[in-house]
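Please, structure for the following, as tokens.
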Amino acid sequence: RRNAFTAMAWIFIPAHCFANPRQVWDLNDTRAQTLCAGLGDAYLRVGGTHEDFQRYFEPDVAPRNNLTQTSMDGLCAFSDASGWPIVFGLNAQRGYNDTSAHAWDPSDAQKLIRYIRARDCNVVGFELGNELNLGGQPHPSRTQAGKGYFTAALQAGHFRALADLLMQEYGGKIGRGVKASPFLVGPDVTQQGVVM
């Protein structure tokens, strides 16, 4: 049985495009907003390979890897104008090299989620990491995290931490796919024949 989450189209904006949003399109362009609204229902997925390098609102981080509040505001305004809710990909590598257990550090994600909630942005889902099943294979989004061994058990622990964070930040209400109760999406895996 299909639900609204699987029946709608998915439109993708790579995370690194926030350093120069015009690489995709001008999110403030009213013609683009009107066009997108006219295309019908869709989810706007923000993430991809560079989500695993992304930081949020950090003035000391290189612009290519930093989502600013201005960029987030533009994304929220675009979502409102187009009617496309956002599914946001979070950095799964944050904290990977900080402990021998490779625990996920949710502090950046928490900062972003709190901003999203305060801004009343239409984010209806969060995913954690991009194609982490690539394991130790050479891949741009894996090289920063040591050898990149994101096992199924490690990912399960990270997803549990994200679920706990979302439960805390959304008052125990998650899973309905609306901004007051977002989905936890994932894991995002590739189909390159690599298994965990």
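The first strand starts at residue 9 and ends at 14. Residues 152-169 form the longest helix (18 residues).
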